[in-house]
Design brief:
Blueprint: E1 4-12, H1 21-35, E2 41-47, E3 51-58, H2 59-73, H3 82-95, E4 98-102, E5 109-112, E6 123-139, E7 144-151, E8 154-162, H4 163-169, E9 176-187, E10 193-205, H5 211-221, H6 227-239
Parallel strand pairs: 8-10
Antiparallel strand pairs: 1-3, 1-4, 2-3, 4-5, 6-7, 6-9, 7-8, 9-10
Length: about 240
């Protein structure tokens, strides 16, 4: 049986006794659109206190849903979930509330400002950028192909490459690769930078090295008897 993981969407302001069912249905509908997999997600329960909607999804869906929510939260108007993201915040603003969502498998919390001003990007730049991860998706029938990389447990699909390069890249499916090209970065009002898109023009296949080999190589590089000094230096930096 597939393990189900939980997203907790907490509306800060009302309680289950004060939130009308019709209004609750509006939030649930937009939340399903935001998460983007309406057949694979299910409302598990409503936790007491504030209105905390607990939604479950399978492990295979998490790597698609979480990046979709993050992308919308950055203020990127081209993100797939940007429409329902703004709708939810408009409803929250009308009701005088805010909300937050806790993502599964992490302590990460996505804030829905609602009654506060929705942060907008105030600057974007394009610069040489490289990203790396496991190649798990190539899609598109035109001259430009979308690339999906599995990066830190999530699927980053806002990467594209021309079809000729994509044919070469396909030979390394499920291998770790590094894609390089022109990345568009956006800074939000709170000063956080996020990668909006990457148009890749080259790639590099990365070696598959296990942790034991890595530690063995480090042992050969680090001089004997210097471990204590290195740990002391780290402690000193932490106290700084």
């Amino acid at each position: 049986m597939t393990e189900l993981l939980e997203y907790s969407f907490r509306i800060i302001g009302p309680s289950p006794d004060t939130l009308p069912m019709a209004r609750l249905a509006v939030y649930v509908a937009e939340l399903a659109r935001l998460m983007g997999n309406q057949d694979g997600i299910h409302l598990s329960r409503i936790d007491p206190g504030s209105v905390a909607l607990v939604v479950t999804a399978g492990q295979a869906d998490i790597s698609l849903i979480s990046p979709r929510i993050r992308g919308a939260a950055t203020g990127d108007v081209t993100a797939d979930g940007s429409g329902p993201w703004r709708k939810i915040n408009e409803y929250l603003s009308e009701d005088g509330w805010s909300a937050e969502m806790r993502l599964p498998r992490s302590a990460e919390i996505i804030a829905f400002p609602g009654k506060a001003k929705i942060a907008k990007a105030i600057r974007s730049v394009t610069q040489p950028t490289s990203v790396q991860g496991r190649l798990i998706r190539l899609e598109g029938a035109g001259e430009i192909v979308k690339v999906g990389l599995h990066i830190d447990g999530d699927l980053s699909a806002r990467i594209s490459i021309d079809a000729a390069k994509a044919q070469e890249l396909a030979s390394f499916f499920h291998r770790s690769v590094r894609l390089s090209g022109d990345g568009r970065w956006r800074r939000s009002a709170d000063g956080k930078w996020s990668l909006e898109s990457l148009v890749a023009n080259s790639f590099e296949v990365l070696g598959e090295v296990d942790i034991k080999s890595t530690l063995r190589d480090l042992a050969m590089i680090i001089p004997s008897g210097t471990g204590s000094a290195a740990l002391a230096a780290v402690d000193e930096l932490r106290r700084a």
